[in-house]
Amino acid sequence: NGLWHSPHFHSQIELVYVVEGQTVAIADQKRTVTKSGELFLAFPNQIHYYEKTAIGKYIVIIFSPEIIYGMEDMLYNNTPKSNILTKEKMQNFANIISDILKAEGDFSHTIKVGLMNQLLANILPEFELKPRIKTNNTTLQSVLKYCTKNFASDLTLDILAEDLHISKFHISHLLNQKLGISFSAYLNNIRVHKACSLLNNSENKISDISEEVGFGSIRSFNRAFKSVMDMTPLEYRNQI
Question: What is the pTM for the complete model shown?
Fold first, then answer.
């Protein structure tokens, strides 16, 4: 399960197509269940994440709005009232996603960009868009960005507060009020997600992965991993 369980944001568009199973996707604090055959689309700079679910099959595509011809301003300046496209509305477009994955050869990048334009041109009219409202999320975004960049270090709430020149009590309040999560839980989620990637894509020892993602001991790593993924790192690696 390569979906980010930690709240995050970026300037790209994030598209998740559920092939099998389901996931709970949250965008701008709105929680929706995304089922097999449905699509979740996070717009640029939308804070979003996914609640832990059973292992499923997902196609995740992250791309810059700049590759979508004539739609860049619309994508940056609007957000959807709902980020989900139902199975009924997706059934005519799922084949485009399949074609994107199959593209290969010298001109595969050009083919993929063309298909992404085709896909967005077809699915965007299915979303009801609303103008992006300027919010006071700048501080929260700074916190999320800092944690994402520095999670592997010996990061504490005191260090974060000092480096960003923000009260640690204000940071804790923001995380709890906006995301419903404590600083330590948020940091553990980021570390566990990175560990999942390493368990998927490397043969490194679990103890080495634990140290690489910032855990002080294998015991704390195992405890945090099981809390987030409902299984131990070894169980996760064995089922891949």
Answer: 0.77
